[in-house]
């Protein structure tokens, strides 16, 4: 099993000038903290730098980077610009919880969010015993259809009076994998 985790912790995908990487050392911690403290990241707040570093290393963290920003910089030590994130809290075997999906508003509308989620999906597809991937979202109009389309997720529970949508998709390790409908007893 360690080989699945090791293989997923050092993955990267390239699309035009953009890079998605699961290498936690690439995250610019101060910028990630700024993002978590921003109004665009309304579902969480930043933690101290040491805790943020541990959080990113302990999760399967996907960073999105604009490499052209580094190429166009006059600073020789310039790094790619951090423009997105998604995290999977996972045991790399049976369970994955998707959280902290964000793309910089200046980069939205370029398909980066969809691509990021396809990269996440590719990673979860490498977990042959995965029972389920789940998430919570408060954005019913955008997020629910987005995750239904890209990951095949379904809303499991609809809270009375609104609130968070609890969504999941069954993996190959789930006893009902591939069946139509949802069996709440399994």
Automatic annotation (TrEMBL):
<dbReference type="InterPro" id="IPR016181">
    <property type="entry name" value="Acyl_CoA_acyltransferase"/>
</dbReference>
<dbReference type="InterPro" id="IPR053144">
    <property type="entry name" value="Acetyltransferase_Butenolide"/>
</dbReference>
<feature type="domain" description="N-acetyltransferase">
    <location>
        <begin position="31"/>
        <end position="172"/>
    </location>
</feature>
<dbReference type="GO" id="GO:0016747">
    <property type="term" value="F:acyltransferase activity, transferring groups other than amino-acyl groups"/>
</dbReference>
<protein>
    <recommendedName>
        <fullName>N-acetyltransferase domain-containing protein</fullName>
    </recommendedName>
</protein>
<dbReference type="InterPro" id="IPR000182">
    <property type="entry name" value="GNAT_dom"/>
</dbReference>
<dbReference type="Pfam" id="PF00583">
    <property type="entry name" value="Acetyltransf_1"/>
</dbReference>
